[in-house]
Amino acid sequence: MTSKILNVLFLCTHNSARSILAEAILNHIGKGRFKAYSAGSSPRENQQPNPLGLQVLKSAGMSTEGLHSKSWDEFGRPDAAHMDLVITVCDNAAGEVCPYWPGQPATAHWGYPDPSAGEGTDAQKLEAFRLTLIALKRRLDLLISLPPAKLEKTLLQGTARALSQD
CA-to-CA distance for 88 and 83, rounded, in angstroms? Predict the structure, then answer.
């Protein structure tokens, strides 16, 4: 598994903020060792990534190309990419019954407050997204810095869960 690219799926309820941020961050910093995806348990009809999330990603020099909201059902299909790790980034999605993931990937929950849920000025809302990006990046920097042995399938579950203990 050391030379294999690890596929990581980030889940949230609507797939518009935290999971989108995590996907973009990991694809940016993953150094070719990781391929990130995101999805939602129940994205709204015509759901799109939150514009403030896209703005903070662009401001941080990260690509937003190809980011779009989608259902987690896409990743349960037989022709879907095989996931090595599935991480919920919101408490609602963590409490839901997840679909069967082919290959039985490792799972973890890394809870973050919803930056799109707050009230306030546009500047305050943008700051909430920026702080969420920073928090996600800090944890993802730890994930990508792990030695290959820690990313072996038998250890990945415990390693990913241990990273949630800040």
Answer: 13
Task: Tell me the C-alpha distance between 56 and 84, whole Å.
Answer: 28
Catalytic member of 6, 9, 11, 12: 12
Q: Which one of 29, 60, 80, 98 is the catalytic residue?
A: 98
Q: Please confirm, yes or no, whether 90 is among the known catalytic residues.
A: yes
Question: What's the CA gap between 9 and 85, in Å, rounded?
Answer: 6
Give me the catalytic one of 9, 62, 90, 106. 90
Q: What is the DSSP letter of 121?
A: -
Domains of the chain, CATH where assigned? 6-154 (3.40.50.2300)
Q: Convert the pLDDT of each residue in 21-72 to its tens digit.
A: 999 999 999 988 999 999 998 888 888 999 999 999 999 999 999 999 999 9
Alpha-helix runs per DSSP H in the chain? 18-29, 51-59, 91-94, 122-145, 153-162
Rounded distance between C-alpha atoms, residue 69 and residue 114, angstroms: 16
Report which listed range, 35-39, 142-146, 154-158, is most confident: 35-39
Determine whether 110 is an active site residue.
Answer: no
